[in-house]
Amino acid sequence: MTPELDEIDLGTVPLGRTGLRTSELQFGTWRFGRVTEAGNVEIDEERAHELLDAYETAGGRYIDTADVYGGGDCERWIGDWLAERDRERYTVASKVYWQIRDGDPNSRGTNRKNVRHRVDALLDRLDTDYIDVLYIHRWDDETPARELMKTLNGLVESGKVHYLGASTLRPNAWKVARANEIARSEGWEPFKVLQPRYNLVDREVEGDYLEFARQRNLAVSPWSPLGQGFLTGKYDRGADLPDDSKAAESSRFQEAYLTEENFDVHDELDAVADEVDASPAQTALAWLAHRDGVTAPIVGARTVDQLRENLAAATIDLSDEQVERLTAAKPGPYDAL
Fold it and tell me: Does Oxidoreductase appear among the keywords (predicted)?
C-alpha cells in the first residue's frame, strides 16, 4: 500500500560539491501551464499549487523549473506559492536557453545579452532575489565557452545565482569539462550540477558522462526518470492507447518508446515490482536512485495521487540482485567507454 504523503518524509542528500543538500527526489514542474499537441493545458494554477502542497507535505524542498515552462506561467505560479512561505527553506532551480520571441534570434541560446535578460525576468516571475541553481537548458555552440562562463560567473558574483548547472538531452561531458577548465583557470564559478535524461530505457549517459560526473563529484539530477510515462505501466503491447496518455497525443513518443525492446525491459520491471510489492513507476525510480553517480531524480506528476505514488519510491529498497537484473534488461550503448 502506498503510504500517505505525511508518512513519506523525504530525506536529503548532498548536491555534489555545492555544500547544499537536496531532497532525495526533486520536484519537476515542466507540466505546469503546458499546452499539449491537442491544445489541452496539462496542469492549471490551482492544481499546480495542490501538487506543490503535496510535495511539501512529503518533506520535499527542491523545486525544478525553467523560464519557458508554460510560457512563464510556471515560474509565476511557483512564485505565488513561495510568497506564502519562508523562501530560505526551499531550493529553486531554473533554466534558460530556448527562444522566447519570434523573429529575434538573440532571444535564444546563451549569449550574454539573452542570459542576463532572462535571469532578470525569471527572478521577477518567481518574485525572489536569487535562484539557487541556474541551468543552461541546452548547450549553445554559437557562444564560446569562455564567454558563457564569464557571463555566468558574473551572475554568481552579483548574488542573483548561487550555483551553476548544465542540462542536456545527449551526452556532452567533454563540453562541460572544457567549460569548467576555463572557469577554474580564471577563478570563475564552474558547473557543479548536471541534469541529463536518464531512465531504464534511455541509457545514453551511461559510460563517459556518468563517469565524468563521478570523478569530478558533480551532482546528477536526471530528468524524465519514467521515460515520459512509459515506465508507469500504463501501456501494453498491441493494446489501444489510453485517451489521456502522452502516447495518444504524440507520434514521436510512440516511435521512441513503444518498441519491442522497451517492452522487454518493462517485463523485467513488472517482475521486480511484484517482488517488492511496489508499482512499476516506484520500482523504476528506486532503480535510478540506486545507480552509482545519481544524486536525486526529478519526479513530476499530473495529479496528487500520481505524485504520492512517485514520491513513495523513496521508501522502496531494492537488492543488489534486483538492481542488476533491471540494469541488464537493456544494457547502455556506452558501456565499453
Answer: yes
Return the C-alpha cell found at 42: 496539462
CB 310 within 8 A of CB 231: no
Listing DSSP states for 173-223 in one string gives HHHHHHHHHHHHHHTPPPEEEEEEB-SSS--TTTTHHHHHHHHHT-EE--B
Query: What are the pLDDT digits (tens) for 237-262?
Result: 876 666 655 555 566 888 889 999 99
State the catalytic residue, choosing from 55, 69, 163, 235: 69
Nearest-angstrom CA–CA distance, 268 and 270 = 5
The CA-based angle 139-29-110, given to 5 degrees, is 20
Structural domains of the chain in order of their starting residue, each with its CATH number: 6-327 (3.20.20.100)
Active site (annotated) includes residue 69: yes
% of the chain exceeding 70 in pLDDT = 94
d(CA 215, CA 198): 19
Q: What are phi and psi of 137, to 5 degrees?
A: -70, -35
Q: Where are the beta strands (DSSP E) in 11-160?
A: 12-14, 21-23, 26-28, 62-64, 91-96, 131-136
Q: Is the pLDDT of residue 335 over 50?
A: no
327 vs 200: CA distance, rounded Å: 7
For residues 247 and 257, the answer to whether their CB atoms sit within 8 Å is yes
Statement: the pTM of the whole predicted model exceeds 0.90: yes
